[in-house]
Structures are given as C-alpha cells and as structure tokens.
What we know:
single chain; elongated; 14 helices
Amino acid sequence: MPLKGIKVLEFAGLAPAPFCGKILADFGAKVTVIDRVNDNILNCMNRGKSILAINLKVPEGQQLVRKLAGNHDVLIEPFRPGVMEKLNLGPEVLCKDNPRLIYARLTGFGQHGRLAARAGHDINYAAVSGVLSMLGRKNEKPQPPINILADFAGGGLMCSLGICLALLERHRSGRGQVVDSAMIDGAAYVSSWLFMARNNVKWMFQGERGTNTLDGGSYFYDVYETKDGKYMSVAPIEPQFFDAFKDKLGLPELSQKVVSDDEKIAAKDILTKRFLEKTQAEWSAIFEDIDACVYPVIEWESVLDHDHLKSRHTFEKLDDGCLAPCPAPRLSRTPGQLSTRPSTSLEAIEEALDMIRDLKLSNVEMQKLVTDKVLILPTEAKL
C-alpha cells in the first residue's frame, strides 16, 4: 500500500482527526492513537489502529509522547491552538527533536485569526466560511449537509491531503513541516467551484439561494417521490439528456426554458404527479439503459444489494454489523485496504506495546510508567 512504513501518532478527538487517521491507515500507514482510555467506544474509526492510553497531564506522560514522536513520521492533533504547547508537545519542541516530523494541526478556525481560540462545530465553520449561505431551498433557512462539509471533507480529508503533500515534499528536502488544517479553510476550498463559477457560469447561478440550477431552483435537477414512497434522483441538465428524459416520461411538452416562478411550479407539479404513478423499481427499469441522468435513491441499508456498488466492492459489512465504505480512490498497483481490525484486539494491543518497547526503556522504567498510571494498559496486556 502507498503509505506502508509511515508511522503516525494520532491524538484522540472526534470526527475529523479520526477520519484523517483512518484514511492514512486504510492506505497502509501504521497509526497509533494517543488517548486517555484504552477503548473509546465513541470513536467508530479506530479500526486498523492501535491505542496507547497515556496521562498527558503529568511530565512523565509528556516525555513518553515526546520520545514516541521522535521516531514517527506524522503527528495529528485536534486541539485548540495552545493546548499542545501547554503540554510541552508543541511543534517547536517535537519538530526540533525530529526535523522530519510532519506535524498536522487539525482545528476549526485555524492556528491564527480572531476566532482561532473559539469553540465550534461543523455547522459553525460552514457558516463562517460563506458556504452554508448557499445551501438550502428558496425562502427557507440554510441547510447544512449534516456534518460532512467541514468535519469530514474540509477537515479530515483535506488534512490527510496536506499530510501526503508534506510527505512528498519531505522526500525531496528531507525536512518535515507543520500542516495548519482549518475546517473553515477546508470547507471553503472544497467549495471553490461554488465561489469561482458565479462570474463565469451565469446559467448555473442566476440569483439567491434555492433559485439556481443545482440548489433546488430547477425542476429538472431534484428528487421526486415514487408510488411506493421511495425516490428518484433527476438531473438531465444537458439538452440531449433532457430530450431522452421527457421522451421516457411521455411528456414532450416539457421545456428547460422555464423562466417565471409560475412556470417552474407548474413543471414541478407535472413531474411530481408523473413519478407518483409508478414505483421506484418501475422507473429504474424505464431509465435503466438510457442516459437521461435519472437514478434511484438507494437507501443506506440497501447499498450492499445494489449491483453496481457490489461489483465495485464499494462497501463492506464489518463483524459488528456496521457498513463501512471501502478506501477511495482506487490505485491500480497499490490500492488501499479497509482497516477492519478492532483496536482492542490482541494484535493491536501488542502493536501498541511494541511502540513503547522500541523506545529502549529499561524494564524498571517501563514498569514505573504503569505503576504510576502514566501508561494505562488493558488488563490483558503484558509488558
């Protein structure tokens, strides 16, 4: 796998940082989570990783992490600016110890700026970035896409990209660097097209939120309910696709050149009534071999049954019954592999302990760390 041999320290957090570590682990990196407990049941993305429970409030715990960082390639920390410095584990210390270290700081508002020290969540970062103002229906409040935009796309995913770019640059220079990955920046960056297309793609952006082609303002880019209470996604934007679309619907009078609100409402009403005439399966069959950009909305519980997703092995069912998307994108020679090993497995525990053993501490030193509860081991672990 492409990141085989890369060693990562991930400080425990919620959502974006664990996802960032998961991406690296799925593509071959050895990821060790530094946590306060051995098994954080709230973190569903610890599979494939190992966990070391270390008390960071005491100098001995801080020194232990400092030694670990000395032989790792990447460190991911999800705390507000200044927290790692208070723990004596800031980049000015760890990057001096290990000049090759990639020190990734994943925060909401970034390492500097008026809001840097403030708390927030996905919806807040999306709001301040300007992106949330574009999402939602006309005459309705802005609607965030759950917490995918800032936490996962702008946060964990963009941070993993920054880490990989820094690793690539290190291959040339031999030097590590600090990655300032702010979710507010990432949310804005993944939305580049929404900002940059407004002056050049006028037909796509005609006005306020909810009145444009892709945000609910077009009747031929929407979701429609079917006879059995399911849904079809409709997106025949290009003329050739629209012609095929209205032909299969038996509605030759449909036109993309609707301008007034009354015309848009009337066209949407026509489609609403037509799609309610058949079930999702019936509509899927009608559009099966036609490029009209009409596809069923697959319920998340049914993704394993969809033939296309099944053929690409897009999802895998884990031993606890959870559905897990497989690593993307697909690399032809060194593809990623979904990390499924529980972080509580004996193999994962032993791997974590090997990290400590690699520090060449004496038996007395290691036992003292455990006795003083600087290093908290699972009951089944043995030094």
